[in-house]
Design a protein that fits this description.
Its EC number is 1.3.5.1. With about 675 residues, the chain is α+β, with helices and mostly antiparallel strands. The chain is about 40% helix and about 15% strand. Among the domains are: about 160 residues, Alpha-Beta Complex (Flavocytochrome C3, Chain A, domain 1); about 130 residues, Fumarate reductase/succinate dehydrogenase flavoprotein-like, C-terminal domain (Methane Monooxygenase Hydroxylase, Chain G, domain 1, Up-down Bundle), CATH 1.20.58.
């Protein structure tokens, strides 16, 4: 096993980033337009990186498979973005955000990266306010905050339930300015299908024009991958249906190590599955756990009656409700981290207390009645009515909730045809975010020189479980405040290199690989649709590499996916041609990558004989059903090196995690 060089700077944790920046090489302003950079992905990480690099004067080529950068999946983020500004005066700090993130990730994240993220968090808010992002404000006009899971302070800035959209529009406007100046060349409806390496360095990509089918060559001095996570390996997830792992997986197959693939976040607050023909799942923001209380009936017969439609939630008296998170975790209650809340919901439903009338009886209540009464009384009192009637309390309370969460309640009602002001929401955990990803060093460079990876596409900041409202924080920190400095250190040696030629044997070979794969799918005479294989993969992944795993199931998953891969290449059918808009061809290429990744995820989970964060092995749990880490044997990042299409050839390399500034201890939210 090789030793990975993470390039973590020496010194005290609070000084590492500032000292590191002070000694990085620079590219002078007059030399930057000699340098070309490719950015793949235009969500918060890619969009902010493209805008920042172009603002500095570099020539940027930005690629997205959507019809516009403003449709990147970052737009779907609802609840907020964390920052250690201590606006509420509840003793928040950079160190506390750092500590909460390490603890939330179950002590499996890299200390130096997490502290840098916490340091830059406050700058992100200032940057976005300057861009005009309409964060929520309190009565006095100051930026408002709310709490998210795994913390005991209010540090989450938000814009109703559409924070991701507003932040993305800020980054998009910054990009548009640079597009207008000619510094960003935008390639919408293009998908990266191969990385080109010349003399050991990333020097370009092969992309497919998704409208015409044309295969294009694009060269650059460096390539930045910011293409998001791989949650859609499960088919059903909260991700947009187009979200995929292809860019990350292609660079993995060219030499970029893939780290901790088994770390997958299951979000506890999603609308339950309703049928076999469903194509994706819908997230209900974690911010709702600020005001909603999660419960199931205490009696199984009541749960059965609710599932059968004989009882409604309001028929269950208060004393017969099990607010199980408040019962099990009194210190944090409904705001425990996502992995803890998700497993607790699964435990209740597996025990027969689920309330949703689907095939699996999977569902719990998220109830706002307590908050409606509480806030109704407060508002009435503030208005001078010190003895309001129940009707007045309910009316004022519902208005308060509507002002706070209105668009989320509206979305829930449109999807379920149930009014969440009158009856509790029904929720259940679903795949949401992936903490694993391409291994990067402190400079965000992969094991391929010149290939940088940002945001959810890398592994670096969240350990085994991401705290809510930290995804937007990481994406913007990487794009606005990290990559502009670290990529310059790498590019300083390229100011005399000149334009990278696209007429080289390396580009020829990469283009041939892409065309060969496309021709195979177009000419394969199969009978099954791409989606049928993707659904079959998702079924294996959810049941055996999902919320709970065990050795037997993981071994079965590896074998079953191998058989599914073999069947896929024999019997997949892709209609149409390669020289047109062909969504089925796009999906076939992506599912081919998911099939390989799924096996690696199972292999990684099988290797890690412990439970931590989102990786829960049934064999390794405490008497109370909590995750049981093995710090002596597994305090490391597992970085996998591609050696061939046989999963057994993947070679694991370890990056030992050293905790110098935080004590390793059992995670407790009780």
């Amino acid at each position: 096993m090789s030793k990975l060089d993470s390039k973590i700077p020496a010194g005290h944790i609070s000084q590492k980033w500032s000292e590191h920046k002070a000694h990085l090489n620079l590219v002078a302003p007059n030399n930057r337009d000699r340098i070309e950079i490719i950015v793949v992905g235009t969500g918060l990480a890619g969009g902010s990186a493209a805008a920042s690099l172009a603002e500095l004067g570099y020539k940027v080529k930005a690629f997205c498979y959507q019809d516009s950068p403003r449709r990147a999946h970052s737009i779907a983020a609802q609840g907020g973005i964390n920052a250690a500004k201590n606006y509420k005066g509840d003793n928040d700090s950079v160190y506390r955000l750092f500590y909460d993130t390490i603890k939330g990730g179950d002590y499996r994240a890299r200390e130096a990266n997490v502290h840098r993220l916490a340091e830059e968090s406050a700058n992100i808010i200032d940057q976005c306010v300057a861009q005009g992002v309409p964060f929520a404000r309190d009565y006095g006009g100051y930026l408002d905050n709310r709490s998210f899971g795994g913390v005991q302070v209010s540090r989450t800035f938000y814009a109703k339930g559409q924070t991701g959209q507003q932040l993305l529009l800020g980054a998009y406007s910054a990009m548009n300015r640079q597009i207008g100046l000619g510094r960003i060349e935008m390639f919408n409806r293009h998908e990266m299908l191969e990385l080109v390496i010349v003399d050991g360095k990333a020097r370009g990509i092969i992309a497919r024009n998704l409208v015409t089918g044309e295969i294009e060559r694009h060269s650059a001095h460096a390539v930045v991958i910011a293409s998001g996570g791989y949650g859609n390996v499960y088919f059903l997830s909260t991700n947009a249906m187009g979200s995929n792992v292809t860019a990350s997986w292609k660079i993995h197959k060219k030499g970029a190590y893939f780290a901790n693939p088994c770390y997958v976040q299951i979000h506890p607050t999603c609308i339950p599955v309703h049928g076999t023909n469903q194509s994706k799942l819908t997230l209900m923001s974690e911010s709702l756990r600020n005001s909603g209380r999660i419960w199931v009936p205490k009696k199984k017969e009541d749960a059965v009656a609710i599932r059968e439609g004989k009882l409604k939630a309001k028929d269950i008296p208060e004393e017969e409700r099990d607010y199980y998170l408040e019962r099990r975790y009194p210190a944090f209650g409904n705001l425990v981290p996502r992995d803890v809340a998700s497993r607790a919901a699964k435990e209740r439903c597996d025990a027969g207390f689920g309330i949703e009338s689907n095939d699996t009886n999977e569902g719990v209540f998220l109830d706002f009645s307590t908050e409606i009464k509480k806030k109704g009384k407060e508002v009435a009192f503030a208005q001078g009515n010190h003895n309001p009637s129940d009707a007045e309390i309910e009316k004022l309370g519902k208005k308060w909730v509507e002002d706070k969460y209105g668009n989320l309640f509206q979305m829930y009602q449109k999807i379920t045809d149930e009014n969440p002001y009158e009856t509790p929401m029904k929720i259940y955990p679903a795949v949401h975010y992936t903490m694993g990803g391409v291994w990067v060093d402190y400079n965000l460079m992969s094991t391929i020189p010149g290939c940088f990876v940002l945001g959810e596409a890398n592994f670096s900041d969240h350990g085994a479980n991401r705290l809510g409202a930290s995804a937007l924080m990481q994406g913007l920190a990487d794009g606005y405040f990290v990559i502009p400095y670290t990529i310059a250190d790498y590019l300083a040696a390229d100011i005399r290199t000149g334009h990278i030629s696209e007429n080289s044997p390396e580009f020829d070979a990469a283009e041939k690989e892409v065309k060969d794969q496309i021709n195979f799918f177009i000419n394969n005479k199969g009978t099954r649709s791409v989606d049928s294989f993707h659904k079959a993969l998702g079924h294996i992944m959810w049941n055996k590499v999902g919320m709970a795993r065990n050795a037997e199931g993981l071994k079965e998953a590896i074998q079953e996916i191998a058989e599914l891969r073999e069947e896929f290449y024999k019997d997949v059918f892709v209609p149409g041609t390669n020289d047109e808009l062909n969504p089925e061809l796009e999906k076939a290429i992506r599912v081919a990558d998911f099939l390989e990744l799924g096996q690696l995820m199972a292999k990684d989970a099988l290797m890690r004989n412990e439970s931590c964060g989102g990786h829960f092995r049934e064999e390794y749990q405490t008497e109370e059903g909590e995750a049981l880490r093995d710090d002596e044997n597994f305090t490391f990042v597992a970085a996998w090196e591609y050696k061939g299409t046989d999963i057994n050839q993947e070679e694991m390399h370890k990056e030992e995690l050293k905790y110098e500034f935080i004590e390793l201890k059992a995670r407790s939210y009780k």
